[in-house]
Amino acid sequence: MTVRGIVLTQKPLREQDKFIDILTETGVMEILVKGSAKMSSKSGSATQLFAYSEFDISDRHAQNKARILTGVTPIQIFYGLRNSVSLVALASYFAQIVLYSSLPKSSTPELIRLFLNCLHYLSEQNVNAEHDESMIKCIFELRTASLLGFQPDVIMCRKCGEYLPERLYFSIEQGCFWCDTCADKGVLMLSGALQAIRHITLQDFEKIFLFRVADHCRPALYAFAEQFLQYHIDRKFPALDYYKQIKQ
After folding, report:
1. 30, 18 Cβ separation under 8 angstroms
2. CATH at residue 121
3. Mean pLDDT of all residues in 180-202
4. pLDDT, tens digit (0-9, with 9 covering 90-100), for 40-54
5. CA 147, CA 98: separation in Å to the nearest integer?
6. Are residues 60 and 129 in the same domain?
7. Which of 105, 213, 217, 223 has its CA 20 to 30 A from that of 195?
């Protein structure tokens, strides 16, 4: 078969071979790459971490039922990620989220587009006040949570129905918010952060990167996105801890 996918992990096997996990439109697939460590290998760059490639796969000579790579064509390598240890750590965090999540097959194509777009922004350094590393991380976390079936209720205050309170408390556990007069627990944020969450989780994919949020709204937004995703998939990721250490 021939599939397109993003390399999420690579695991050495003996001296010359390796296994890679790739994200395809039908889910995550493990592939055996023979001779990948040889200087003459033609699969090196196309099978490295975060490469987006077209993979030719065969299982006719598979050992232990592993699929074997018979050919590969690179589509996008994202070389710019290698210029920063923090960018590699952040991309690894995204990959770990994908690898350890049980994603509905219908949502996988959109997740691939999301992952590719985030890697593009990070790799090409197309960052500005609206699209720095922290914002890309926030977008990936909130949109992925929605694709996994944990989309937060962002329509109105759960108690009184107010649509856009100036101050509000967003519940990590219940995935809803209350206005300032209805509750006193949760992640405290301003209306700008709520509007950003609405945009990221509800907007058509083509427009999810097209928004602005004030600087003073960002800390609460970033904190909510990370805590919300981790709470609902109930898992901690080593790459996130490493990324935070590097940024500090």
Report:
1. no
2. 1.20.1440.120
3. 93
4. 566 678 999 999 999
5. 11
6. no
7. 105
